[in-house]
Amino acid sequence: MSHAATHDHHDDHHGAPKNFFQRWCMSTNHKDIGTLYLVFALLMFFIGGSFAMLIRAELFKPGLQLMQPYFFNQLTTMHALVMIFGAIMPAFVGLGNWMIPLMVGAPDMALPRMNNLSFWILPFAFTLLLSTLFSAGGGPAGGWTMYPPLSLQSDSLAYVVFSVHLMGISSIMGAINIIATILNMRAPGMELLKMPVFVWSWLITAFLLIAVMPVLAGAVTMLLTDKYFGTNFFNPGGGGDPVLYQHIFWFFGHPEVYIMILPAFGIISEIIPTFSRKPIFGYKAMVFAIASIAFLSFIVWAHHMFAVGLPLGAEIFFMYATMLIAVPTGVKVFNWVSTMWGGSMTFETPMLFAIAFVILFTIGGFSGLMLALVPADFQYHDTYFVVAHFHYVLVTGALFAIIAATYYWLPKWSGRMYSEFWGKMHFWNSVIWVNVLFFPQHFLGLAGMPRRIPDYNVAFANFNMVSSIGGFLFGASQLIFLGVLVHGVFFSKKKATDRVWEGAKGLEWTVPSPAPFHTFDVPPVIHDDELAHGHVND
Amino acid sequence: MSTIDPSKPIRMTQQNTSSATVDPVSDNRRKGVRRTVTITAAIALAFFLVSFVQIVLMK
Question: Which of A269, A276, A339, A519 is catalytic?
Fold first, then answer.
């Protein structure tokens, strides 16, 4: 139990605004804006998930079942855009907003008004994007990569490009805010190499964001001018080249993958030490591994394009550079396992999701190594093997980490303990059905089933049916998550202690549960013993 | 004004005060935030422009 003092009397006149509009629409408080991001991400997760259910329903059997192929293409495109830009990224930004100031002893984000603007851009961006589904020409159907010339045929391109611009502006502002907060707002004594790994992971991710989101903005701007202003950036008829779009897109796209996984690494690096009751093994190696992965992410983009006909030298370079990423990633997995080794482990829901992350993300990493091999990729390219690979990385990787973080920090946010029984029910259902959903897709891909098709050869029928059943049950399992969240936030009778978890260390656990509206108005006194990584330089 | 006596061995905690405080690092923080925003925004703008330059060069 900490001796953290709050400003109860002070809060009487500086607490949360009573007016709903004032509190949630005009908020400059990092905790409220973090909550807004998380609620928004949850909503998008269920919208994107409903698209996934429709996709799996259509693929339940060979032949066209429920929809026309063009609408199926819209669903796959929108599922990806909504999940990537609407669910995973805002969820990490929400977690960062909530936890980074608490973890570094800052009173708020460095730029609180910009923080508000960063969030409130998003609902408009996604309203615009989702509205295209109801327009006469339908939504975007050329895949989330928006490759020309296919994407240029869509009537909704301008809406999609504008919404991508809005998402990009939001992300860049959020990234600048996070960098400014971490570099300037840390409490005295909170040195860079004493920061929690989650804060480090977000600092590095934020630099990735400001480097690559503008490149995506540039690429889609060129698409827009190609379609509406007569330019020929990607039109061979006018001297352009569609492959150049792929180079620019994947210069953004591959770091984007790491934007969605590095904060997950940070989360797992917080949870495993807590429930192993040991400091993380190799703190500095973990930080440098994250930085190495971030650097390498800039020099591997063309491994998405092996099949377009790159020069042999380029293919070999990108193949080896991609395989090199396995080294720092292996360091991280080794260190997580070493942290658990000999620890006094307990298996509360966040830890279960964290362990599942380590195992299942590693499967996604291994299939990524297979895809990095140029000769093998010629067979795997654009098959369900790729779909299986990136869903292991993004669902059992990024999403499981977000769920783990939610269970881990929810008692700090709400002041109430969630139901451990239902948390574990959620875990076991998720971990079983997600494997039933995605593991058979490896076999489908190796057997040659292409991705992004509504109909397929009868030879693929059985695995598709198994995959769809797994999909429906994985989707239904997330309703348990919703129930646990609603109960844990509003109805649970069990109050959370300040430290919440026996093995938890760090500044965020010194404030009361729920965290008061204002924290660290006065910089905290840092004691290295109380930090998770306070003695890293000893 | 802090109510915490640094000579006493206490656990890591927030300081507790009900009066206005002078934050000696606030000026440095403000300057640091401005400098960070300027540099990071410049990086973002540079990458946006480079995406156009790159495509012109590659053609």
Answer: A269
